Fold these 3 entries.
Entry 1:
Amino acid sequence: IDPLRQEMFESQNLPPQLLALLPQFGLRVTLFGQPVSMAQEIAIVSAFGALMISLAVWMFNRQD
């Protein structure tokens, strides 16, 4: 959702001063105080999804 929100705000032709204030209002995803780029967000979500699918496959293959 955050990348879509960023694109929406950037397409509104808002002044650069206002765009600079957006992170203060919690409108950017940060990790350890650093803003996360769209590519990093995609990588994090993909890695988490792959981990969850791997765990699900492992749990379904376990015999009781």
Entry 2:
Amino acid sequence: MDTIKKLFHPIQAEIMRMPIPQSLSVQLHKFYRKLSGIFRNQSLNVFSSSSDNKSIAFSNVKGDANLILKIKTIWSMSLTDPVAVVVQENLKSEIKGEIPTDNPIADKKLTEAQMNKLADYCKTIQKHFYFPKEIEYVVNKGKILITKANPFTDTVSESPKPIIQNRQTSKVLIKGISINPGIVTGQVRILNKFHVNAKIKRGEILIIPNLNKSLYGKMKSAKAVVIDSILPNSLSKALFRRDFQIPTVEGVKNATKLFQNGNVITVNGVSGEIYSGGLVY
């Protein structure tokens, strides 16, 4: 690995040395002026976003020249995987907080209009991701702004003041034991002795009788995994969590017989429940 990194050094140096395309430079200067204001003294946060959740981040970046330098630095350090470079205004927040999208709770510091707006954002974000997120928000100049959407890995506590009260729950078909958290909806793909060579399409929910390392290659495309049996020991579970960070439920007896290919189900990796269809709002 160190040898490979050394091979990248000349490429990284060339990226830092070469100017960026003029058309991109014009756009960056334009949007920098828009974010930094008339006096251009607003600091920005610049960070990368990739599928492996590893981020390169620079905070309190001031000046358009420094902004371009940080963007080029991220490019030079991200040669093996595609990344998105995010430039975010460093907001001065009047109010800030965190809230789960699954059950947003009224914040006494917010006005009724702001709470309603926050509830709308929670609903939109959860519909987009198909499962709950833990979002961070700020109030800037009276407006609610969402600054971050983090993975939701805990159960939502009961609250006497939920904002969203019209959530419809689908029928629970069967329940197992959670290995990995998260809630996703997708089509079923069964992989057993009758479907040994079945091809897993990206975004499908894989249902298998037991976990076998020979299946790992096919599981990379799955959105979630449901297992008939229970993994033999805690080490197996730890290794699985390390390799696959997708909603997973084990001990779902006869799941390979209960479902058929193409069925649409929702896997709740927090509670271990399997629902018919998707979660409706």
Entry 3:
Amino acid sequence: MYEMLIGFPPFCSEGPQETYKKIMNWRETLVFPLKYPFREARGAIERFCCEAEKRLEASTGGEIKGEEWTGTHSGKGRLLSCSCEGIGDTSNFDEFPDTDLRIPGQGRNEPKR
């Protein structure tokens, strides 16, 4: 949810150990942008990041279904407008230059799989 609203993962790191440390210390590492427009979603995200016994759905199982999600819509319409002309339409994706991907374990002497 955080990544969909903010645009990047909440505990981004160079490696899995650092990511784990950030998750375990979420009170210090979970940061919301200053101009975060989705207060209701922030509360829900923070309720996912807590001790297991206090986590959403841990006791009654109904918090998410009972959450008032209609208040998160501003009524201003979509933030992003896109269209799709068919299964091969990639016009909504960013353009990146073609690069030669170097796959570990595939040296010059090894056959490609």
